[in-house]
């Protein structure tokens, strides 16, 4: 089944479970009662067509399991208050399993789901079956899945199960979640979410109305709403890469023989560096590019652009031992050495300086951003940048990642964002470009229209960021 078809299945389930939820207002005595209890599942439906089986004890929980037992990717489906026996829920779990996932639908209520008895106060029932507590109790499930070789895990949660999914997403147990017509999820929950999240709401949902969904998106990262399948696919690729820097860092090397048409010149000694310089020499705004990508185009936007040879005539090639090369060309050490460049620019009247870094240059840019040498940085498909680095950055930072980047996969970009959000003292922006791998912002196949357009978009975002912060 194609990813788009599977997402449609998720959406159909959302609509089927939530359908008819617009009638009536919630009462103050039992605020969840009316909409949450509309259209209860038909629990007496024939289960002969189910592809999975019920396991009595999966890490302490009864569970319906289906799909590819040998897959390294697992999805946990967290039900609404009616529990794991709903046939429609299991049918959709089977469809997810057909897409190549190992799917687990745990009985989080241990045989005591809400049974439709009108005498039961749902609010009190939820107090006894807290999704927050269930998320804590479910750690045994994630541990069991990882022992079974499930290295990449996602959650799809509905109503009650959505709150469960969000609580788990505040930990390091999962790579991505989808929540549909959630209950008890608030906008502040999004501040603690550490992984990609997709939020599916309904126009007439009185529990999680569109206005609340908007607040959730604002408090999360609105630019990176990736689907569960795409995030898991990218994360699985990252987990499978034995030597992540090697494979993608060396794809699409630049054509070093191509030349001509350059607007700038090579300076043989700029504060001790050979450098390509271009753009407006009299501008008070300077950009240091840790790569020669788009230097002239950045200069055309009114900046004085410097592309120093940070490798001193010894750039990496496809034939070098990359690990050994990195040991002698540390971006951390080079950021320290490059202070002479920034001093030179200040002496030349460049009062506002930014750095744009690609791959190795992304780490260089981040290290410089920990000092007072610059006013803003942009990093594209960075290499060797960690979430802890974000705790030390002093200046506005834009982070551009790729969905299929195995060097800096989407999950790591989300960790950057989570670290920055905890600080709340510098401006930041992050975007994950769909369908592209490492090198998408500069070293791509120029004969591929999609890759070319993505590169143009990355350039436009970088220029917008510098325009915003270098003024």
Automatic annotation (TrEMBL):
Keyword Methyltransferase: no
Protein name: Dienelactone hydrolase domain-containing protein
MF (Gene Ontology): hydrolase activity
Domain Dienelactone hydrolase residues, every copy: 62-217, 295-469
Bilayer-spanning residue ranges: none
Annotated keywords: Signal
Cited Pfam families: DLH
Protein's UniProt keywords contain Signal: yes
Signal peptide region: 1-16
């Amino acid at each position: 089944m194609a990813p788009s078809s599977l997402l449609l299945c998720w959406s159909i389930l959302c609509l089927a479970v939530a359908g008819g939820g617009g009638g009536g207002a919630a009462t103050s005595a039992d605020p969840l009662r009316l909409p949450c209890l509309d259209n209860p599942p038909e629990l007496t439906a024939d289960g002969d067509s189910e592809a999975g089986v019920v396991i009595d004890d999966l890490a302490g929980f009864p569970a319906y399991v289906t799909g590819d037992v040998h897959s390294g990717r697992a999805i946990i489906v967290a039900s609404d208050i009616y529990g794991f026996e709903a046939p429609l829920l299991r049918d959709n779990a089977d469809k997810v399993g057909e897409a190549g996932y190992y799917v687990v639908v745990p009985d989080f209520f241990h045989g005591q789901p809400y049974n439709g008895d009108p005498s039961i106060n749902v609010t009190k029932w939820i107090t006894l079956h807290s999704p927050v507590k269930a998320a804590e109790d479910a750690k045994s499930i994630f541990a069991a899945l990882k022992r079974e070789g499930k290295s990449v895990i996602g959650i799809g949660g509905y109503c009650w199960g959505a709150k469960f999914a969000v609580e788990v997403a505040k930990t390091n147990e999962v790579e991505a979640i989808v929540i549909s017509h959630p209950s008890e999820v608030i906008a502040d929950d999004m501040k603690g979410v550490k992984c990609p999240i997709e939020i599916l709401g309904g126009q007439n949902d009185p529990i999680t109305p569109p206005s609340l969904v908007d607040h959730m998106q604002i408090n999360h990262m609105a630019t990176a709403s990736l689907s569960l399948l795409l995030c898991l696919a990218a994360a699985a690729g990252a987990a499978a890469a034995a030597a992540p820097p090697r494979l993608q860092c060396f794809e699409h090397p630049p054509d070093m023989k191509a030349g001509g048409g350059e607007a700038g010149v090579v300076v043989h000694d700029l504060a001790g560096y050979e450098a390509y310089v271009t753009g407006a020499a009299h501008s008070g705004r300077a950009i240091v590019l840790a790569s020669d990508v788009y230097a002239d185009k950045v200069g055309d936007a009114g900046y004085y652009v410097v592309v120093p040879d940070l490798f001193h005539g010894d750039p990496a090639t496809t034939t070098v031992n990359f690990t050994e090369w990195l040991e002698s060309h540390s971006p951390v050490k080079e950021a320290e050495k490059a202070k002479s460049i920034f001093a030179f620019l200040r002496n030349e009247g460049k009062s506002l300086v930014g750095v744009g870094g690609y791959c190795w240059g992304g780490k260089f840019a981040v290290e410089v951003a920990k000092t007072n040498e610059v006013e803003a940085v942009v990093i594209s498909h960075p290499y060797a940048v960690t979430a802890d680095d974000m705790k030390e950055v002093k200046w506005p930072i834009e982070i551009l990642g790729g969905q299929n980047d195995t060097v800096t996969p989407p999950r790591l970009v989300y960790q950057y964002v989570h670290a920055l959000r905890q600080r709340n003292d510098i401006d930041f922006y992050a975007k994950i470009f769909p369908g592209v791998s490492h090198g998408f912002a500069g070293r791509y196949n120029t004969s591929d229209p999609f890759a070319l357009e993505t590169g143009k978009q990355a350039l436009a975002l970088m220029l917008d960021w510098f325009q915003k912060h270098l003024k």
